[in-house]
Amino acid sequence: MNGKFIRIDTYSGYRGCQRDPTGVRHIVATDAENSALGDYVLKALSQAV
């Protein structure tokens, strides 16, 4: 592994510049399938308030 990754976090609510403490964080390999990335994004969006 070369140390590169894709990070998907939720930043939502009144203080949009701060990570949502009740949200999710996904660390995904750069060679992940597009469908897997889409699933992680949808999970993050479903946790956003």
UniProtKB/TrEMBL annotation:
<protein>
    <submittedName>
        <fullName>Contact-dependent growth inhibition system immunity protein</fullName>
    </submittedName>
</protein>
<dbReference type="InterPro" id="IPR037891">
    <property type="entry name" value="Cdil-like_sf"/>
</dbReference>
<dbReference type="Pfam" id="PF07262">
    <property type="entry name" value="CdiI"/>
</dbReference>
<dbReference type="InterPro" id="IPR009888">
    <property type="entry name" value="CdiI_Proteobact"/>
</dbReference>
